[in-house]
Design a protein that fits this description.
alpha/beta; 10 helices; single chain; binds 2-phosphoglycolic acid
Length: about 250
């Protein structure tokens, strides 16, 4: 049992259409009934649903986030892109940046750093994703990788409490495999120390992401240093998401 503030970030990735909004009713009802529990729920639907989600969640305690944004702060000739200002105007309070799926698509530490700066300028909360691949883990390069991603992504940034780190080992995303608690504890401790060094924050918020589901949530909840979860697949069904939160707080 806990009443520690925990974040639950529902990352819908490239899933969902207007019909999916109906399923959110259950979640809105659930959050109303559990106002006293200290969780913060954030829906990150695809760009196409941001406006509809904003409308729907206007009167609720649930926030909206985008899954990415362009690094350019001003409007400009960037076909197919959306910047931080545009998502903020649509009602987003959060943005996921540095996700491994976007790193795979070409987002470098430098680009991610520019995106983070642009998002902070718009007063968005940044969910900054970092994590090692399986081959980096096998080669014992986890710390080196995390350190590089942290120093690159947060370069030039001063104390900023709007930065939330999401530790997502790439080999855990969508695989059903999560790290052992001892490994997670060690890596989260390392991340907190590195981020503190870099941006001089007193308290660093670190979420875990990668195959969080109903089966493993109790095991993950045993780790006191985890401040919440970034949930992909398991967040798309309202019942699953509600049950994950319930298991954390009951
Ligand atoms: P998953 O995705 O929960 O489906 O593993 C997590 C993520 O990529 O953010």
């Amino acid at each position: 049992m806990t009443n520690k503030l925990r974040y639950f970030i529902a990352n819908w990735k490239m899933y969902g259409d207007l019909k999916s909004l109906k399923s959110i009713d259950k979640v809105i009802k659930f959050t109303k009934l559990h106002k006293k529990k200290r969780f913060k729920l954030v829906y990150c639907p695809p760009y196409t649903l941001l406006h509809a989600f904003s409308d729907k969640l206007k009167k609720s305690t649930i926030s909206i986030g985008a899954q990415n944004c362009h690094q350019e702060n001003e409007y400009g000739a960037f076909t197919g892109s959306i910047n931080a200002k545009m998502i903020r105007i649509l009602g987003a309070k959060f943005v996921i940046l540095g996700h491994s799926e976007n790193r795979n698509d070409g987002d470098t530490d430098v680009i991610i750093n520019q995106k983070i700066k642009s998002a902070l300028k718009q007063k968005l909360n940044v969910l900054f994703c970092i994590g090692e691949t399986f081959s980096q883990k096998k080669k014992k390069l986890t710390n080196k990788t995390l350190k590089k991603q942290i120093s690159g992504g947060l370069k030039g940034l001063k104390k900023n409490s709007r930065i939330i780190i999401s530790y997502e080992p790439v080999w855990s995303i969508g695989t059903g495999i999560i790290p052992k608690n001892i490994e997670l504890e060690r890596n989260i401790k390392f991340i907190k120390a590195e981020v503190k060094k870099q941006i001089k924050l007193k308290k660093v918020t670190v979420l875990y992401g990668g195959s969080v589901n109903l089966k493993n949530i109790l095991t993950l909840n045993m780790i006191a240093s985890i401040d919440g979860y970034l949930i992909g697949g398991a967040s798309q069904k309202a019942k699953n998401l509600i049950d994950i939160i319930k298991k954390t707080y009951n």
